[in-house]
Structure formats: structure tokens, C-alpha cells
Design goal:
CATH superfamily: RNA polymerase II/Efflux pump adaptor protein, barrel-sandwich hybrid domain
Distance between the termini: 16 Å
Order of helices and strands: EEEHEEEEEHHEH
CATH topology: OB fold (Dihydrolipoamide Acetyltransferase, E2P)
Shape: globular
Strand order of the largest sheet: 1-2-3-9-8-5
Radius of gyration: 13 Å
Largest sheet: 6 strands, antiparallel
CATH architecture: Beta Barrel
Strand content: 25-35%
Structural class: alpha+beta
Length: about 130
């Protein structure tokens, strides 16, 4: 399942752009590869993120993986549910498992990201 309304990175993050706000998460493919997620390290509200730079990390029973920001902007919100329930990333990566929301520097940055069809082809080629 790859939602059509999102844009995707080769590192398996997604971005939803709504006006000047960008919501970031990890893909269903990423959470499957990671296995059971036990901890999420996210930036603070007010932090400035740069496209393609690390924004935090996800720890699973298998490994710790960095998460990269698909866009530049200022963090306006961090998903509070993940502090107590990091498994939401496994259960609902495109919904309740979102990571952060940004005030985007440039909403057009998403044009450099993959569409759902491109991402589907990319993960198909990975296997």
C-alpha cells in the first residue's frame, strides 16, 4: 500500500504537503524492514531541518536507523503518541504513526521526491 497523495524518498520517508505545512513519516516498507519499533528519537519543536539531513532515528529490535528529512523547514509539531507508543509506526505508518510537522521553507521541494508509482517501482527493484 503506497498512498498516492504522498511523495517519497529513496531512504523510505514520506512527505505530505498541505499549503505551507509538511508532515513527515516513514513508509510501510521501512517499518516492515525494521521490524518491531521500540523507540523513536525526534527533534524538538522549533528545530530547523534541512532536506536530506537526519531529523532523528528509529530503534527497532533489529537496529537503529536514521530518519532523513524529505524537506527543509521548522518543526511545528512532533507526534506526542510515539513517546509512549512507538509501535504506532508499525501499526499505522501513514496515519497515527506520522513523525513531525514542518513549516516548509519551500513547498516546491516535494517535486524532487518520488511519486507513489515511482516509489512502488523503486521498492520493487530493491527486492
Amino acid at each position: 500500500m503506497v498512498p498516492e497523495n504522498l511523495r517519497y524518498t529513496k531512504e523510505h520517508e514520506w512527505l505530505l504537503v498541505e499549503g505551507q505545512t509538511g508532515t513527515i513519516g516513514i513508509t510501510d516498507h521501512a517499518q516492515e524492514e525494521l521490524g518491531d519499533i521500540v523507540y523513536v528519537d525526534l527533534p524538538r519543536v522549533g528545530a530547523h531541518l534541512t532536506q536530506s539531513s537526519p531529523l532523528g532515528s528509529v530503534e527497532s529490535v533489529k537496529a537503529v536507523s536514521e530518519i532523513y528529512s524529505p524537506a527543509s523547514g521548522e518543526v511545528t509539531e512532533v507526534n506526542p503518541a510515539l513517546a509512549d507508543a512507538p509501535e504506532k509506526l508499525n501499526e499505522d505508518p501513514y496515519g497515527a504513526g506520522w513523525l513531525v510537522k514542518l513549516k516548509l521553507v519551500d513547498p516546491a521541494q516535494n517535486t524532487g521526491l518520488m511519486t507513489a508509482a515511482e516509489y512502488q517501482a523503486y521498492i520493487g527493484a530493491e527486492k
